[in-house]
Amino acid sequence: MSLDILFIHPNASIKIYQDLSKDHSAIEPPIWAGMLANHCRNKKHNVKILDCESLKLNFQRSADEINNINPKIACFVVYGQQPSASSQNMEGATEVSKILKKINPNIIILFIGGHVAALPYETLEKENSIDILCLNEGVYATSNLAEVENLRDEHLLKKVKGIAFRNKENKIIITEPEKIVPKNLLETDLPGVAWDLLPELSNYRTAGWHSWSNNSDKEPFAALYTSLGCPYKCSFCMINIINRTNNSTNISSQDSNIFRWWSPEFIIKQFDYFAEKGVKNIKIADELFVLNPNHFLKICDLLIERNYNFNIWAYSRIDTCKPVYLEKLKRAGVNWLGLGIENPSNIIRKEVHKDSYKEVKIIDIVNSIRNQDINVAANYIFGLPEETEESLDFTYSFAEETNSDMVNFYCAMAYPGSPLHLDAKRRRMKLPSTYSGYSQHSYDTENLPSNNLPAKSILKFRDNAWIKYHTNSKYLSLIKRKFGEKAVENIKNMTKIKLKRKLLGD
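^ that's the sequence the OP posted. Answer follows.
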């Protein structure tokens, strides 16, 4: 039987993470590729998944493997489990697609993900190897494309909603918008991940810090969504751009802040599968898991009933993480909560539409979480619009004083689909010239300047702050006391890896 669609998760880990990719960065299962494959399979299409990252395939080997499989459609899924991942995953996807187009021009190349949803015109103008791309999450467009007999016939393509392509005159055609999967149809039209089409879960590796509460054992690892989207409108985030249902060129994630979720009874079946496979490390990849108590507390109840002893990592806002929830989260196996603190300054948070928790004392929430023996992974952003040298120092001092179990320091970035990206374009600011330039850890990263500081100064501060925090004796003592010497050694090995930066003259 001929293959209708091959869903491809590209690999550019070395380019994106530099030497951190060898042992320290996560290798995450491609959830969106798995969900799209399951959707299309339920529509009676013949599908497979090629996870180039977990199989450690370089660009040439990836293209050769796709050619050997010879699908009707090679669908490159450039999603990821953090806001930056879609744009940075374009690095591997475009390189492989160029090679594939030369090897076998008959295979239709389809792209789907946040970057192409945000920038359909720019993508098709730049990338000649891409035949078709999807303008939103692409669930219905993907299965509808598989129904088209001749994908070179522009008259047939025009009937497929939610796509973009070039006609014979090389003019870019954008079709009528397609709907996203509504909440009431999630379980039928997006029925979880096709785990059976992916490599064994032992091929996947969690972030090192997440594994500390599992004896530093990083594999196997699984991840899932229990909800999609986010109801908030933070200007630095592009997560909701895939919910777009119009073709305007001047929209951002703020125009489609939609939040949907699967029922707890549906979600628990995936946890049952992980338990059967012997998985302990699990990431709930929701932008915000601790949000709707009717949703996440019910999932917790079902996990507590089963007593699986998972090591779960999930995300929360400061103001949605009520102390009353914490005991149940811990009993369910949530050992880590990622908190988007971003910046301790109310003024700076207000500038990026994340000031709604200004009445909440951040340190008190952090302490209440840790008092329930839940570890905190705190996220901070340097270089938001009103950032100054004084506020950089203030943020770092706050992070050091708080002494979270793990911190992620980021630079403000103009991710395509985010309001910061639209603003940067309007102001004719310099944007990344490469896809890996959107990666926080790449050599050619290109972060935004603030209104007061150049990008170079912010990046230098970020890199120095990361080393300083993770070599601090107070922090290392905390880690040794909570997780043991093995975790300390892991941190010391990470801090020995110096990221090279083009912007800093390396």
